[in-house]
Write a sequence for this structure.
């Protein structure tokens, strides 16, 4: 399986980030990958709770439609690293796996929130903004079994 990993500097402007991501996806597809992976919070990143809540997306949104169509047209797997999503008035940091038919075949709400105060004074309190997920998510792709995790989740052996 040939992978393409996309990394980008994400700002707090969802439309600007969407433009960047579309460009990077189109560049990536030239290398004929089977699977493209995007990072956590690739459409919007902020440490401001009000901005995150304002920009949290419903599960059915124009960006998701674009990514599903892109995966289908290019016959690739696409991991949407994570998006701030709104579901039943709760905000989640959610990862989505879209198959080569443009269907979301797996999703995962981040379980372990990154709540920390660093020595330099920076602090992050994801639990003040995001609800925690409850379920591990596994999906079988041919001979492989894939599981989701988002950033800080990797520090917990259960996943």
């Amino acid at each position: 399986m040939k992978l393409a990993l996309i990394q980008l500097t994400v700002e707090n402007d969802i439309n600007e980030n969407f433009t960047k991501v579309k460009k990077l996806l189109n560049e990536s597809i030239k290398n004929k990958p089977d699977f493209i992976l995007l990072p956590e919070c690739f459409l919007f990143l902020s440490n401001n709770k009000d901005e995150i809540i304002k920009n949290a997306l419903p599960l059915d949104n124009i960006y998701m439609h674009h990514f599903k169509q892109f995966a289908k047209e290019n016959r690739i797997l696409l991991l949407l690293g994570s998006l701030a999503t709104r579901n039943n008035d709760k905000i989640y940091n959610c990862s989505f796996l879209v198959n080569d038919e443009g269907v979301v075949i797996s999703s995962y709400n981040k379980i372990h929130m990154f709540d920390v105060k660093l020595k330099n004074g920076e602090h992050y309190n994801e639990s003040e903004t995001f609800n925690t997920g409850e379920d591990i998510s596994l999906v079988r792709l041919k001979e492989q079994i894939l599981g989701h995790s988002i950033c800080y989740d990797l520090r917990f052996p259960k996943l």
Notes: The first strand starts at residue 3 and ends at 5. The chain has a mean pLDDT of 94. The chain has three helices and ten strands.
